[in-house]
Write a structure and sequence with these properties.
- The protein has 420 residues and is α/β, with parallel strands linked by helices.
- It contains 14 helices and 15 strands.
- The chain folds into two domains: 24-287, 3-Layer(aba) Sandwich (UDP-N-acetylmuramoyl-L-alanine:D-glutamate ligase); 297-417, Mur ligase, C-terminal domain (Protein-Tyrosine Phosphatase, Chain A).
- The strands form two sheets. The protein has an eight-stranded mixed β-sheet with strand order 4-3-2-5-1-6-7-8, sandwiched between helices. Strands 13-12-11-14-10-9-15 form a seven-stranded mixed β-sheet, covered by helices on one side.
- Helix 11 (314-321) packs parallel to helix 12.
C-alpha cells in the first residue's frame, strides 16, 4: 500500500486538490475532476512507466492474477471470473474500465466497491511523493487498485486491461497466471495499428511466458496469437462451443443476453476449468452473476423497451445489431477518436430514425445528413425517441459507455428495469 514519504523527503505539487475541504463530497468530486484531466502529455505508452510508479509508491502486487484483454467483452469476462472466485470463498479484487455511472465501479473487493474516502486518501498520499513523471489517469487508477487490493488483503485479482496488451499499464503486472484474449476487432486504430494483424499482435503482447492463453479470436487474429503463444511457450486454448472445456452448465438461463455474452460465458467456463480452483457449482454462480450496466440492458419507459448498450466500435455494433428487433429508434453518441461513422452505419441499418447527440460538448464525430437528426442534449434525444416509439416500440441507446452513463441515472429513476 502507499506509505508515507520519509521524513524530510518533501513532495511534489501535482495540483491535486487538498483534503482540507470541510465538504468531503466536494473534495471527492474535485479530486475526480482533477484525475480525469490527467494524461500522458504526449509520452509514449510504455509499461516501464507503470513499473516505475509502483516502485516509487512502494506498491505490492496481488499473489495471483488473471488478465483479460480484447476488443469487446473484457469487462463482462472479468466480472464473471471474479464472481466465480468469490463463490469459491476467495478474497477477490476486481479492476474494470471504463465505469458507466460512478468511478467506484472500477475497483472492488468482493461485493464492495472502493469508497470516496478511499479514493481521496490514495490521491492525497500519492501527491506527497516526488514522482519522476506526472502519471496519467489510467496509471493512477491502476496504482489505486493495487493499493486498494493490498489494504484489503486479497488472494486473487481479476484485471481488465485498458488498451491493447503489449504497452498497456497492465503489462507491468507480474504473477499473471492466465491471460484471456476475448476477441480481436478494429478499435483504437490510432494506438494499436490499422490492420487486424497489428491489433492482434499488440493484444497478444499480454501473453505471459509459460502461462495459459484462452481466446475466442479467430482467423488472422488467431494466427497471430498462436504464433506469439508458441514463441513464449504458453499453452493456447481456443474457445469452441463443441469443446467440453468451454461448455456452459446445463439449464443455464441466459434470458435476453446477447450471443456475444454467451460466448463470454463459454470463455469464463473454460478459463475456470483450466485453472481448476472452482467447482462446477461455483462456475455456474459466476456465469449467473448480474451483467454489468449497459450491456444489452433493458428498461421499460412509457410502454417502450429501451435498450442501453455501450457498443462503441464496429464489432460491438455488429454484435448488438444481431440482437435487435426489425425496427427501432436509435439514440447515438460517440467520443472522439472512435470509428463513429462505421459504428453508426451498422446501427442505423434498421433504425426508423437516428437521433445523434453529444457525448463531448462541442464535438460531433459523425456527419449529420439524410435521416440523421442532431439533438444536442442526450436526455432530450431519449425523450424524442421514446415519444416516437411509444407504445410498444423499441429505443436503442448506443455508441459510448459515456452516453450510457449520462442516461442510465435517469432510466433507473424513471423507468422500470427489465430482468436480463
Amino acid at each position: 500500500m502507499v506509505k508515507s514519504p520519509s521524513e524530510g523527503e518533501g513532495g511534489n505539487d501535482r495540483s491535486i486538490p487538498t483534503g482540507s475541504e470541510t465538504n468531503s463530497s466536494s473534495s471527492y468530486e474535485e479530486k475526480l475532476a482533477w484525475l480525469y484531466r490527467q494524461s500522458r502529455k504526449g509520452a509514449p505508452r510504455n509499461p516501464d512507466r507503470m513499473r516505475n510508479l509502483l516502485e516509487v509508491l512502494e506498491l505490492t502486487v496481488p499473489p495471483s492474477s488473471i488478465l483479460v484483454v480484447g476488443t469487446n467483452g473484457k469487462g463482462s469476462v472479468t466480472a464473471m471470473l471474479a464472481a466465480a472466485f468469490q463463490a469459491a470463498g476467495k478474497r477477490v479484487g476486481r479492476f474494470l474500465s471504463p465505469h458507466v455511472e460512478d468511478f467506484s465501479e472500477r475497483i472492488s473487493v468482493g461485493e464492495q466497491t472502493i469508497t470516496p474516502t478511499e479514493v481521496t486518501a490514495f490521491l492525497d498520499h500519492a501527491a506527497r511523493y516526488p514522482l519522476p513523471f506526472d502519471p496519467s489517469f489510467f496509471e493512477l487508477c491502476f496504482a489505486m487498485a493495487l493499493d486498494h487490493f493490498e489494504r484489503h488483503t486479497i488472494s486473487h485479482a481479476m484485471i481488465e486491461a485498458g488498451v491493447g496488451g503489449a504497452n498497456d499499464v497492465t503489462a507491468a503486472l507480474p504473477n499473471v497466471h492466465a491471460v484471456v484474449i476475448t476477441n480481436v476487432g478494429f478499435d483504437h486504430l490510432d494506438t494499436l495499428g490499422s490492420t487486424l494483424e497489428e491489433i492482434a499482435h499488440d493484444k497478444a503482447g499480454a501473453i505471459r511466458p509459460g502461462q495459459p492463453v484462452i481466446t475466442a479470436a479467430h482467423g488472422r487474429a488467431l494466427d497471430v496469437i498462436a504464433e506469439i503463444a508458441l514463441q513464449r511457450h504458453s499453452p493456447l486454448f481456443v474457445c469452441k462451443p463443441e469443446d467440453p472445456l468451454f461448455c456452459v452448465p446445463h439449464n443455464l438461463s441466459t434470458g435476453s443476453l446477447s450471443t456475444g455474452y454467451r460466448k463470454n460465458q463459454q470463455l469464463v467456463a473454460g478459463t475456470l476449468r483450466l485453472i481448476g480452483t472452482t467447482t462446477e457449482a461455483e462456475i455456474r454462480a459466476g456465469l449467473l452473476s448480474p451483467p454489468l450496466p449497459a450491456r444489452m440492458e433493458h428498461f421499460s419507459l412509457a410502454n417502450c423497451d429501451v435498450i442501453l448498450d455501450g457498443a462503441h466500435n464496429p464489432s460491438a455494433a455488429e454484435e448488438l445489431y444481431g440482437n435487435l428487433p426489425t425496427s427501432y429508434a436509435l439514440v447515438f453518441g460517440a467520443k472522439a477518436g472512435k470509428q463513429a461513422e462505421e459504428t453508426l452505419a451498422i446501427l442505423e441499418r434498421r433504425a426508423s430514425l437516428a437521433l445523434i447527440t453529444y457525448v463531448t460538448e462541442g464535438h460531433l464525430p459523425v456527419h449529420i445528413h439524410g435521416e440523421r437528426t442532431l439533438v444536442p442534449d442526450p436526455l432530450e434525444a431519449l425523450a424524442r425517441a421514446v415519444e416516437a416509439s411509444s407504445p410498444r416500440g423499441t429505443v436503442v441507446v448506443a455508441g459510448s459507455f459515456y452516453l450510457a452513463g449520462m442516461l442510465r441515472p435517469f432510466l433507473r429513476q424513471h423507468a422500470t428495469s427489465r430482468p436480463r
